[in-house]
Design goal:
Elements: H1 11-14, H2 22-37, H3 39-63, E1 75-87, E2 90-101, E3 106-107, H4 110-115, H5 119-130, H6 138-141, E4 151-152, H7 156-176, E5 184-194, E6 197-206, E7 211-218, H8 224-236, E8 245-249, H9 253-263, E9 267-271, H10 273-281, H11 286-301, H12 305-320, H13 324-331, H14 339-342, H15 347-353, H16 360-369, H17 379-394, H18 406-418, H19 421-428
Parallel strand pairs: 5-8, 8-9
Antiparallel strand pairs: 1-2, 2-3, 2-4, 5-6, 6-7
Helix pairs in contact: 2-3, 5-7, 7-17, 8-9, 10-13, 11-12, 12-13, 16-17
Length: 429
C-alpha cells in the first residue's frame, strides 16, 4: 500500500506545483499573486486576458490566422497601440490590436468598442454620488484591481463633469418623456424649496395605479407663467384628458387658473387637504389651532358630501368674527377640498388622493441626495439634482393603495365632465 505524506509546504502559498508543466506554473504564479491582492484583482487579471483573447479572435476573423499568407484577404494586422477599457467605474489601460483594410482604412473592432462604453462609468458615478459619496472621494471608493494596472478617469474634475452630464441627461429625460401611450387618471402637482429655489414636480398615476414622474420645473406654483408652461408641456408631450383627469394641487390660485385654462372642464380639481389645513391654521393663535384642526379633519372624514360641506361652512362662520383671515382661507376653494368625497371614491383610494402626499416620497428622496451639497450655484444645478433624485425615487415606486378601485374613479370622472355645468351645480349645492 502506498504511503502518502503530508506536504510541509502549501503549493498555493509557495507558488509552486511541482507536477505541472513550466508554462502552467508561470500562469499559476501570476494568478496566485493577484489572489493575494484580493478576489477582484484576480478577476480583473483574468478578465483582461479574456478581453485580449476576444479582440485577438476578432482580428483573426477579419484578417485571417497570423503568419499565414492569404492572397484573397481584404484586411491585415497593423500592430497595436495604447487603449483603454471601462472597468469598475474607471478606465484601465490596455494594448489594443489594430487592423487595416488593403486600401489603408482603419477597421474598428466591435469587441474593443463594447468594452469602451463610458456609460458604465457615468452610471456608477451617478449612483455613488446620489447615495452620499462626495466627488473628491469617488476614487477611493472603488475596489482595488491591482496596483500595477494604469488607470485614469477618476480625477475630481473628470468625475464632476461626468456627474453634471448624467444629471443633465436625467433632466432632459424628465422633460421629454412621451405621455401619449398611457392613460393617466390622476395628475398630482406640488412644489418644494431647495437651496432657495422652488421646484415644481408633476406626478402622474396611471389607470393601473402606477406612479410616474412627468415633469420638473423651476418656479413657484403661485407663478402663473410657470403653471401654464408646466401644463402646456404635458399636453404637448401627449397627456390625454379627453375622458377626464383628477388634478390634485396645493392651494395656489395661479395653478388652479392654469388648470382651467389648459384643461378646461376635462379636469376635476382636488385641493390638497393638508395644504388647506396648514394655511388655515397659520391664521390662528396656538390656542385655537388644535380644535380647528380637529373640526377640519372631522368634516373631511365625512363620507356624505353635503354633510361635509355643511360642516366646513359652519366652521368658517364660527371663525368669521374672531379670526376672519382663517375664515377667508377656509372658504377659498372650499368645495374643491371635497372633490374626492363628491366623486364617491372608496376609503382607501380617497385617503390616497385627498392630498399631494403621494409625491412627498419622491421629494424625500431629493432631500436625501442633496443633503451633502455645500454650494448651490444656480437654478439649473438645483433642477439637475432634483431630476436625478426624482428618477432615483421612481425606481422604488409601488402602485398606490386602492389601485384596484381606479376603474370607479375613471367612471366618476367621465360622468362629471359629461354632466352640464348647471346640472352639476344643482347636484352638488
Amino acid at each position: 500500500m502506498p504511503v502518502y505524506h503530508k506536504s510541509k509546504e502549501n503549493p498555493i502559498s509557495s507558488g509552486g506545483f511541482p507536477n505541472l508543466p513550466d508554462h502552467v506554473q508561470v500562469s499559476l504564479r501570476e494568478i496566485i499573486g493577484k489572489a493575494k491582492e484580493g478576489l477582484l484583482a484576480l478577476s480583473v487579471a483574468v478578465g483582461l486576458d479574456v478581453v485580449q483573447s476576444m479582440m485577438e479572435a476578432e482580428v483573426t476573423e477579419i484578417a485571417g490566422p497570423k503568419g499565414k499568407h492569404n492572397p484573397e484577404r481584404t484586411s491585415f494586422r497593423h500592430g497595436s497601440e495604447k487603449g483603454s477599457v471601462v472597468l469598475g467605474g474607471r478606465k484601465v489601460a490596455i494594448r489594443r490590436p489594430r487592423v487595416r483594410t488593403i486600401e489603408g482604412r482603419e477597421v474598428k473592432l466591435k469587441t474593443y468598442e463594447a468594452f469602451q462604453d463610458e456609460r458604465f462609468i457615468t452610471e456608477t458615478v451617478l449612483e455613488h454620488i446620489l447615495y452620499g459619496l462626495s466627488i473628491r472621494h469617488y476614487k477611493h471608493s472603488l475596489e482595488p484591481i491591482g496596483e500595477e494596472l494604469p488607470v485614469h478617469g477618476t480625477s475630481k474634475s473628470t468625475i464632476s463633469r461626468r456627474f453634471i452630464y448624467a444629471t443633465r441627461k436625467a433632466l432632459e429625460e424628465l422633460l421629454s418623456r412621451p405621455l401619449g401611450d398611457k392613460r393617466f387618471l390622476v395628475l398630482v402637482i406640488d412644489g418644494v424649496v431647495f437651496a432657495g429655489h422652488t421646484v415644481v414636480a408633476a406626478l402622474g398615476i396611471t389607470d393601473k395605479g402606477e406612479k410616474e414622474v412627468l415633469g420638473l420645473w423651476e418656479g413657484a406654483t403661485e407663478n402663473a407663467a410657470v403653471c401654464r408652461s408646466l401644463l402646456t408641456n404635458l399636453v404637448e408631450r401627449g397627456l390625454k384628458v379627453e375622458e377626464g383627469i383628477l388634478v390634485v394641487i396645493d392651494g395656489s390660485k395661479a395653478l388652479r387658473a392654469a388648470v382651467k385654462e389648459v384643461f378646461g372642464n376635462r379636469a376635476v380639481v382636488q385641493r390638497c387637504q393638508v395644504h388647506k389645513k396648514r394655511n388655515v391654521l397659520e391664521h390662528l393663535p396656538k390656542g385655537a389651532q388644535e380644535w380647528v384642526g380637529k373640526k377640519l379633519e372631522q368634516a373631511w372624514s365625512e363620507k356624505d358630501y353635503h354633510k361635509a360641506l355643511t360642516e366646513l361652512n359652519r366652521l368658517a362662520d364660527a371663525l368669521e368674527d374672531k379670526y376672519p383671515g382663517a375664515a377667508r382661507s377656509l372658504r377659498e376653494g372650499l368645495e374643491e377640498t371635497l372633490t374626492v368625497t363628491r366623486l364617491g371614491l372608496p376609503e382607501t383610494l380617497w385617503k390616497t388622493l385627498r392630498s399631494t402626499n403621494v409625491i412627498e416620497t419622491a421629494f424625500d428622496k431629493v432631500r436625501v441626495v442633496t443633503r451633502n451639497v455645500k454650494r448651490w450655484r444656480n437654478g439649473m444645478q438645483v433642477l439637475r439634482w432634483a431630476a436625478a433624485g426624482l428618477l432615483q425615487a421612481e425606481k422604488g415606486f409601488n402602485r398606490i393603495k386602492g389601485y384596484r378601485e381606479l376603474p370607479l374613479l375613471a367612471t366618476a370622472l367621465l360622468e362629471v365632465i359629461t354632466t352640464p355645468e348647471t346640472s352639476r351645480r344643482v347636484k352638488t349645492a
